[in-house]
Amino acid sequence: MQGQGLGGGGRLSVDGAAAPSQTRAGASMSTREAQARLQELGYSVTPDGSMGPRTTNAVRAYQKDQGLSPTGRFDKATLDALSR
Q1: Are 43 and 19 a contacting pair, CB within 8 Å?
Q2: What whole-number distance in Å separates Cα of residue 57 and Cα of residue 18?
Q3: Do 68 and 74 touch, CB atoms closer than 8 A?
Q4: Which among 72, 52, 53, 77 has a CA at the least distance from the CA of 61?
Q5: Could you give the C-alpha distances from 16 to 20, 37, 72, in angstroms and in order?
Q6: What kind and span of H or E run contains 36?
Q7: CB-hemisphere CA count at 13 Å for 15?
Q8: Each residue of 3-61: pLDDT tens digit?
Q9: What 3-state class would DSSP assign to 11?
């Protein structure tokens, strides 16, 4: 699906990951869903489906708080942690 990457509000994919149908529940969510989850957890982000600097900074802060590598991207480990 073209045009539905990180900024398009489509489903997030993880580099080298299996298709969503081959992964366990929670390993895939839209950018907007991931942003909403971060907001629920108290991070300063607007769930707009766009991967701007505010979202990147919120993701990095969440990753650091969770002991994850602070990439600023919604990678598999981050999506797994957000889905808990």
Answers
A1: no
A2: 27
A3: no
A4: 72
A5: 12, 24, 18
A6: helix 31-40
A7: 5
A8: 444 454 555 555 544 444 333 344 589 999 999 999 999 999 999 999 999 999 999 99
A9: strand
> Which residue reads 């907001």 in tokens?
39
Strand partners, 11: 30
For 52, residues 6+ apart whose C-beta sits below 8 A from its C-beta are none
φ, ψ of residue 35 to 5 degrees: the values are -65, -40
Q: What is the dihedral of CA 57, 7, 14, 19, to 10 degrees?
A: 150
Cα–Cα distance for residue pair 42/74, rounded to 1 Å: 17
Q: Read off the amino acid at residue 50.
A: S
